[in-house]
Amino acid sequence: MLDLSRRRRLLVLAICCLSLLIVSLDNTVLNVALPSMQHELHASVSGMQWTIDAYTLVLASLLMLSGSTADRLGRRRIFMTGLVVFTAGSLLCSLAPDLTWLVVFRMVQAVGGSMLNPVAMSIITNTFTDPRERARAIGVWGGVVGISMAAGPVVGGVLVQSVGWRSIFWINVPIGALALFLTWRWVPESRAPRPRRVDPVGQLLVIALLGALTYAIIEAPEAGWDSPEILAFILVAAGSLAALVGYERRRTEPLIDLRFFHSAPFSGATVTAVAAFAALGGFLFVNTLYLQNIRGLSALNAGLYMLPMAGMTLIFAPLSGRLVGGRGPRLPLLLAGCAMAASGVLFAAFDAESTTGLLFTGYVLFGIGFGLVNAPITNTAVSGMPRTQAGVAAAVASTSRQVGSSLGVAVIGAVLAGGAHTGATRGEFLAAARPGWWIIAGCGAAVLLLGALTTGRWARATATRTAALFDDETARDPHRTRTGS
After folding, report:
1. What is the DSSP letter of 419?
2. Do 280 and 228 lie in a common domain?
3. Could you tell me if 121 and 42 lie in one domain?
4. This prediction's pTM
5. Domain identity same for 240 and 361
6. What is the pLDDT of residues 381-417, one digit of tens each?
7. Which residues contact 425 (CB under 8 A, 6 or more apart)?
8. Domain range holding 213?
9. Is 329 in contact with 373 (CB distance < 8 Å)?
10. Are 11 and 186 in contact (CB under 8 A)?
């Protein structure tokens, strides 16, 4: 636990938020650049999916490994290493000669990104020890996502329109260098008292599961769900999942400690993160292609069109943090689920694209919902857990976000692929997108239902019993701290 003055704690929070800014800004800027990249690199819709999912898959696969490595070697050291790798990966992306190399360099970026956000969250969790103060800090953290959403489309639009899509990766370099200097100067080093052991088998099984599942979803529209290739990848994913569950149950210090899921709030936060970020990934992917390829807007104008959504996220994310700190996670989760579901229904059932007014209403509703959902995800995941487990729980929540984003782009992109080919008419595109909007509405409904089921008295009791499992184990053997995930 770090014992710092209030001013120093706020400075540490600002530095950690800077790392989140470059990662989030990179994603929002990239979405605006997708049509330009698709045209210059002669890429299909599935190719554009891979520029996003190659990043999120590697990120999701390595988050827990990076977290445990930071616990062992030092959080500041791993955080600084991540900044260097992410910045170098950004430079490489700007030099990519074709789509294949761009996907490879996006994976390099992701290796660095895996060392940033979960480690930064662990630093924040150990810096802000008061529950109310921590909830507000997490709200500020979530607000940075809103800032990136507000700034990303506009900044990306300006860069793509004036310089070209390669310039979107340049902006990470000065921000990364500044974050690196500030981290070296102001963030204290910290380690876990008993870091987790490395779990290479569990790590490989997670990579096989996520990689095979995403590949099958993205490539199935072209190859066919009944093709031997797709069926083989589905079998690999299913086998990896079964092997992962069986193997992790037997380990003393597993990569994913399945006892965490005895806590209803933790399980709910994990699934909520997948649903919310699947909705976000699909929402950004569909709208970017629609605004530029179908409406014919420039990259800058498409970015400006997205501002109502981004602005609402910017406003409601810190408000959500305050609500969580003052009244708990239930209200923000219920409101978030309602708003996100309403947005999806507006597009799916009422053709929100038909008028600019309805389009902006859908954007506003989604921005409100997504702004409200981020803070309670992290807070609910760590609530009731012993302090020694808080960083681990936050890492699982971060992994769930990336898994959700990857699956959202993969599933909704696959649904869209049939009508989003180059030269598709407006009617063809909207018909192909409608099932995707129903999926987004379903994700919002899932957030609503989970918020209602996993934040009540019964759910809190399960969290208390789960925490006792770890407390009892530590009491029996004070020299051994079993951590997972």
Report:
1. T
2. no
3. yes
4. 0.81
5. no
6. 766 666 566 656 767 777 888 888 888 888 888 888 7
7. none
8. 200-250
9. no
10. yes
